[in-house]
Design brief:
This protein is of the alpha/beta class. The chain has a single domain, classed as 3-Layer(aba) Sandwich (Rossmann fold). A five-stranded parallel beta sheet has the order 2-1-3-4-5. A two-stranded antiparallel ribbon has the order 6-7. The longest helix has 18 residues. It starts with a helix and ends in a 5-residue tail after the last helix. GO terms for molecular function: hydrolase activity, acting on ester bonds.
Length: 214
């Protein structure tokens, strides 16, 4: 019986996300950049997540009427963003956060349930910091390089969409469908690696995400 209660006592400790040291230098570089240009007196929108966000270098040009910070870090998974949520999200006190994660999680063979549990922790952290913050979860995207995993991505997207129905401050932005021509992937949206997008791809994303900015 004592061992049972000890397990209950220690269980929350295992849910605490640790900061992955692999990303430490990149996160430091991001925070140093915005330390010099972020205006804390203005409303802030944060775009964050893995390389599909990080590589959208001209994202601010698409939304010129907003103070927009791009804190994406390449190769990250949802658990990594949870570990660096203070540095990449909360410290900027955003009115809205756009999150793109899950892509690398699926590639790393994580189960949808595990990914969703981490998303829930991340959402709860943001809500605890400010219950009024709006959160937009961007669907996982299809790609040439990971097209063989499309079934798993679609399953994750269904779960992401469902969780966004549980809270008025959560929204789901579907970028999957616009990247397809019926059931076939639009292959002209990608760089030579078949994974990351070119400007054509980002223009399609803008067409979806602009509806969630205001």
């Amino acid at each position: 019986m004592k061992s049972f209660f000890l397990v209950l006592l220690l269980t929350p400790l295992f849910g605490i996300a640790q900061q992955n040291p692999y990303f430490e230098n990149e996160v430091t570089s991001i925070t140093q950049k915005y330390d010099t240009i972020w205006d804390s007196s203005r409303e802030t929108i944060v775009f964050t997540g893995s390389s599909s966000i990080r590589m959208w270098k001209n994202i601010s040009d698409y939304f010129p009427n907003h103070q927009l910070l791009n804190t994406g870090f390449g190769g990250s998974q949802t658990i990594d963003l949870l570990g660096y949520s203070n540095e990449l999200i909360l410290n900027y006190k955003p009115k809205k956060v756009f999150i793109y994660e899950g892509d690398n999680d699926i590639s790393a063979k994580k189960k949808s349930k595990e990914i969703m549990n981490t998303f829930k922790e991340l959402i709860e952290q943001i809500k605890q910091a400010d219950s009024k913050t709006k959160i937009v979860i961007i669907s996982a995207k299809p790609s040439i390089a990971r097209w063989n995993l499309k079934g798993k991505y679609k399953r994750l997207n269904r779960k992401l969409k469902k969780i966004c129905t549980t809270d008025d401050n959560l929204e789901y932005a579907n970028v999957w469908d616009v990247m397809l021509d019926k059931r076939k992937l639009k292959t002209n949206l990608f760089l030579s690696d078949g994974l990351h997008m070119n400007e054509i791809g980002y223009k399609l994303w803008h067409g979806v995400l602009k509806n969630y900015i205001d």
